[in-house]
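User: Write out your own:

AI:
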Amino acid sequence: MKYTKTVTLKDSRQCLIRSAESGDARDVMDIFLLTHDQTDFLASYGDEGFFDVDFERRFLSAKEASDKEVYLCSLIDGQIVGTASIDAIGRSKVGHRCELGVAIDMDFWGIGIGRALVTACIDCAKSAGYSQVELEVVSDNTGAISLYESLGFIEFGRNPRGFRSRVCGWQELVSMRLELD
């Protein structure tokens, strides 16, 4: 799926939100590893990497060719500083649902990139024909929860043992959804 939009951030910088391309594989892999090392809010750690540049290139090529999924990157001054995606949950009975994921370099938190990426994912989900976007967020990530709520997501459940953190033990996950129709 293709997507491109430029947004003005809170600090007046321009941020390009676009579909990641196979040629972005090295930079996408680097930002993935960086963001997963920076916070305990994501589903894995950077040292759990199970992929290389060739794997990432094939992964991004598949997303480019898909009409139901997208992998987005946010760029400031040509540098990828965050990513987001929508992924199909399944087919048939769950074919109306997709899952959203976001990761942003901590140096760029709080300036509007998260809102821009989530909004872009919502636009892509609508274009793909989904009627529900879902996500899970660590309950201590109150900034992200506030963002999601401001965009219309509602909580529909909690998993008190959703993540097993190396840092703090069990982390509760909040399940949220946004109905698109």
